[in-house]
Design a protein that fits this description.
This protein is about 60% helix and about 20% strand. It has one domain (about 5-99). It is built from 5 helices and 5 strands, in the order βαβαββααβα.
C-alpha cells in the first residue's frame, strides 16, 4: 500500500461490539471518501470484541462487491483483529459476495 494513510480506531469510534448497519454504512462512506481524496485507510480493530455479519456486509462487503477485491487490498488495511473478529469479517464479506 503506497501513499498517505488515514487511521480509523474502530473501538474509539463505534465501541467494542459492532452491530449497527447504519454506522457500518457511515464507515464505508467515510473510507471511500478518503480513498477518493488519494489516501489509503487503516482500520484498527484493537479492543473490538465482536461484530455482526450485517455490520461487516455494510462496511467492507459492499466495498469488495462494488469495487473489487484488488481495490480493497490496495487501499484498505485491517489491523489488530482477534481470530473471532477476523472470522466475522471474512464471513460477512463472503455472504454479500454470494448474493
Amino acid at each position: 500500500m503506497k501513499g498517505p494513510l488515514i487511521y480509523y480506531e474502530i473501538k474509539e469510534m463505534y465501541g467494542s461490539d459492532l452491530s449497527s448497519t447504519k454506522l457500518a454504512t457511515e464507515l464505508r462512506k467515510s473510507i471511500l471518501e478518503e480513498i477518493d481524496l488519494g489516501f489509503n485507510v487503516e482500520v484498527d480493530f484493537k479492543g473490538v470484541r465482536s461484530l455482526s455479519s450485517g455490520w461487516t456486509r455494510n462496511s467492507f462487503g459492499v466495498i469488495v462487491k462494488t469495487k473489487g477485491e484488488e481495490f480493497f487490498k490496495n487501499h484498505i488495511l485491517l489491523s489488530n483483529m482477534t481470530k473471532g473478529v477476523r472470522e466475522s469479517v471474512l464471513e460477512g464479506i463472503a455472504e454479500i459476495l454470494e448474493v
